[in-house]
Design goal:
heterodimer, A: 500 residues, mainly alpha, MetI-like fold, 76% helix, globular, B: 347 residues, alpha/beta, D-Maltodextrin-Binding Protein, domain 2, 10 strands
Chain lengths: 500, 347
């Protein structure tokens, strides 16, 4: 689709469009934001993952759940919160009389995106830590290495695939984000593409298509980098890692430091947005919604779940064989299959949405404006989110166990079902959670592709907040939060740790 | 493994359950025996604003009306263009004239019957009979009352390039209403003068915002001194907080900066129920509904029907006619030219 749009332009226009100074500025801004978000997220997520899996942190599971919660908060809500936090008419000043400048622009985008993407890195690293075989570290220690030496030479390298998966998700998210950067007024590629799409003339469309192609090229570059980063890495182990849990490290000395870190993350990433929603409700007493709001919330919740749950299931079902084949039977075909899932993630949602509209309204009209199309779009768009955790689990599930099973006469398929799949469980669960939560919050695709009259929770929040009817947006935002939080909790409770 | 399977089964059963249960939830239906044929509306205007009107129509005519809301008018136009003849829409309701003109130009708009057109003043409808206005808004000069005295305000939108306002003006070059205003400026003053003005604004470090609401917020914070939004954003803000330190006014009478714009409605070329669609449009432009537009606490738009009592916060309509420049709304459809100009100057 994009290529057709782009090729409609003649060569001179094309060179004009591609080699514009503005593109370079956009590229610089996009990459700058991506790198800084990545740094912030890694610096926060690494100690968090370590604290919750490897230390004697009190109530580790409680903290884990709190740190994953920001996943339930849509990025645009986070941005709204930060915007209405500072400033003369902001929450901080009206409630406590403290006047700070409004948080916006680059810093606003950085904070909002980091808070919102932190759980992706955190959960990936957590899976990495949990699946790590403590024997290696113990061997290192017994051979006389210092603690820090072991950490840098043995522990960190084992986290490589988990980090790569997390970093890829974070990077693609930043590049593809529209809600946060538009609210924070920070120009990136995706924001410009959106603006161009909203023009009607042929030139805008060409320009948007070219920008999209450049964005996709950039993503492919990142993916090659990712492959290079993981080339030849083997960190699997014959012993099934979860058999033995790493002994917790005591860290009395910096109890306060770790506590402060946890507190800050929970405060900014979770409590602040919730407080903001409460503040919305309280400030606009005049429009406090009546009883009907409950039926509205309930029916939108049903709409949200109707699309999100199947999307999460199908995404995992589709992602598992893709990741498995790419890992166990590496060939050009299986690899490119896996990498193309990531490219799908990077195609701007508007461009993807309109391509599907044209395709389905013209050729597959029976499915157009049905919930099936929406689910299909979610699955394709969010496939990468499911792939990452599954891939990092696969890195740790040793092939030798599979070989043993094969030599004992099991068929390939049976081996996959009975040996590989159980080992992948933590990855499957996290992958499912990612897709589910993303689908719950998704906006641009939902707006374009949903059936007529279909209104999800995210849709309601956006629609009311856009009209500054914050009090009416609040119950819907709260419903997303509560329901997603419940889901996260359920998954973590039933998840990896139970098997220990 | 068992747990995952159980979870999956639970989810699937939930899916099928809700799938059967809530089919009719989203229809603004009157129920009972249907009166009018069912119509489908694509709306580029928000649900909060037009939802109650659509519901009132459904109740009054005992018919089913389904609505798909878009986040803005451009998204709606793009979707209609992509769907072409296969669209389900009978009626489209858009925020601005350029979008309305675009649909007519691309052949997606059907003719509105004369019986409907005659109820609306000629200057507030398309000359080809493809759309009619439903409510109006004015472009204004908004200012922070603590940073500037009314007497010192610029008298023309062209004065905003004066170095006295360097880095002090907020605008929204990507916004539909701004672009309609710019199209008007090109129409009245010519492309060269419009281009010079844009370049002057950029040189004067005017601050770009994605849309009007953040301009008003930034004015309140004192981050900028002047802004050129539509009239109703500040009025909404003032209703929440009367002490908000921002006011708005018009430039000198007839200045292009005071342009009057409308939202409008039309019928698609492929409408399956064109008669019911026409009836709906008539309903929207009836006096009762127009009054609803004005008295709605959230939306301080100008009704287009004459002789209505207006909201206290609105400048009287007769005054509006004096200050607004004379521009034919129908000619504001050259958005492509305006976009090209914006691109040329790097916006």
């Amino acid at each position: 689709m994009l290529i057709i749009d782009a090729s409609r332009a003649d060569a001179s226009v094309l060179t004009d469009v591609v080699f514009r100074w503005r593109n370079l500025v956009l590229l610089g801004k996009t990459l700058g934001l991506t790198v800084s978000v990545l740094i912030v997220v890694t610096l926060l997520a690494l100690p968090l993952a370590w604290l919750t899996t490897r230390s004697n942190l009190y109530a580790a599971r409680f903290w884990t759940i709190l740190c994953v919660m920001p996943l339930a908060i849509p990025g645009y809500l986070m941005a709204f919160t930060l915007l209405s936090f500072g400033g003369r008419f902001g929450m901080l000043n009206t409630l406590f009389g403290i006047h700070i400048p409004r948080i916006q622009g680059y810093w606003g985008a950085l904070i909002a995106l980091s808070m919102y993407l932190l759980p992706y890195m955190f959960l990936n690293l957590r899976v990495g830590f949990q699946r790590m075989d403590p024997a290696l570290e113990e061997a290192g220690r017994s051979l006389g290495c210092s603690r820090s030496h072991v950490f840098f030479r043995i522990t960190l390298p084992q986290l490589k695939p988990a980090f790569a998966a997390g970093a890829l998700l974070v990077t693609l998210h930043v590049i593809g984000d529209l809600g946060v950067v538009s609210l924070m007024r920070f120009d990136t590629f995706t924001y410009s593409i959106y603006q161009e799409y909203m023009g009607f003339d042929a030139l805008s469309k060409t320009y948007a298509a070219c920008l999209s192609l450049m964005l996709i090229a950039m993503t492919i570059g990142l993916l090659i980098l990712d492959l290079y980063f993981l080339r030849g890495l083997r960190i699997d182990s014959v012993r099934n890692a979860p058999i033995r849990k790493c002994p917790p490290t005591r860290h009395k000395g910096w109890f306060f430091a770790s506590f402060a870190l946890l507190l800050i993350i929970v405060l900014v990433g979770l409590i602040l947005p919730v407080l903001n929603i409460a503040h919305w409700t309280w400030r606009w007493e005049a429009d406090i919604p009546d009883q009907t709001v409950f039926t509205e919330v309930f029916s939108s919740l049903a709409s949200s779940l109707k699309a999100s749950i199947p999307a999460a299931l199908f995404a995992v079902i589709l992602a598992t064989p893709i990741a498995f084949l790419a890992m166990r039977y590496p060939s050009k075909l299986t690899r490119s299959c896996q990498q193309s899932a990531y490219v799908g993630y990077a195609i701007p949602a508007v461009a993807f949405g309109y391509s599907l509209i044209v395709l389905f309204s013209q050729h597959v009209n029976a499915l157009y404006q049905t919930i099936y199309l929406l689910i299909f779009a979610y699955v394709i768009h969010f496939l990468a989110e499911a792939l990452g955790p599954i891939r990092s689990s696969l890195f740790l599930a040793t092939k030798r166990l599979e070989d043993a099973s094969r030599s004992l006469g099991r068929s390939r398929f049976s081996t996959f079902i009975h040996v590989t799949l159980p080992l992948l469980r933590p990855g499957l669960i996290v992958g499912m959670a990612f897709v589910f939560l993303s689908a719950m919050k998704e906006l641009p695709l939902t707006l374009l592709l949903s059936p007529i009259g279909y209104e999800t929770l995210a849709w309601q929040v956006w629609s009311y907040a856009d009209n500054t009817s914050y009090a009416k947006a609040a119950p819907h935002a709260l419903a997303i939060l509560v329901f997603s939080a419940g889901f996260v909790w359920l998954l973590l409770m039933r998840g990896p740790e139970k098997s220990r | 493994m068992k747990r995952v399977t159980a979870l999956a089964l639970f989810a699937l059963s939930f899916f099928t359950f809700t799938g059967c249960g809530s089919e009719s939830n989203n229809k603004a239906g009157g129920g009972g025996e249907p009166g009018e044929a069912e119509i489908t509306i694509y709306s580029g205007r928000s649900k909060e604003l037009v939802g109650p009107i659509i519901k009132a129509y459904a109740l009054a005519t005992k018919s089913n009306v389904t609505v798909k809301y878009f986040s803005n008018s451009s998204e709606l136009v793009n979707t209609l263009k992509s769907e072409g003849d296969k669209t389900a829409a009978d009626v489209y309701w858009l925020q601005d004239v350029a979008a309305l003109g675009q649909l007519a130009k691309d052949g997606h708009a059907g003719k509105i019957p004369d019986s409907v057109l005659k109820n609306v003043p000629k200057q507030l409808q398309s000359s080809t009979g493809h759309w009619i206005g439903t409510s109006g808004r004015a472009r204004v000069l908004a200012y922070n009352t603590e940073k500037v005295k009314p007497a010192d305000l610029p008298k023309s939108v062209f004065d905003l390039t004066d170095s006295r306002w360097k880095g002090q003006v907020g605008w929204a070059p990507g916004n539909g209403s701004f672009q309609a205003f710019l199209t008007g400026m090109r129409l009245v003053h010519g492309d060269d003068k419009a281009e010079a003005w844009l370049k002057g604004m950029i040189a004067n470090e005017a601050k770009p915002y994605p849309k009007n609401t953040p301009i008003v917020a930034a004015l309140g914070e004192g981050e900028i001194t002047l802004g050129i939004p539509n009239h109703y954003y500040l009025l909404r803000k003032k209703a929440e907080n009367p002490d908000f330190p921002v006011n708005q006014t018009f430039f000198a009478d007839g200045d292009i900066g005071n342009m009057f714009l409308v939202a409008g409605i039309g019928i698609t070329k492929t409408a399956k129920n064109a008669d019911s669609a026409a009836k709906f449009i008539n309903f929207v432009n009836s006096k009762e509904v127009a009054e609803k537009f004005v008295t709605n606490k959230k939306h301080f738009e100008y009704p287009l029907a004459k002789g209505l009592k207006t909201n206290d916060n609105l400048q009287a309509q007769d005054k509006l006619e004096a200050v607004a420049p004379k521009v034919e709304l129908d000619k504001l459809s050259d958005l492509a030219g305006t976009k090209a100009l914006l691109k040329k100057v790097g916006l």
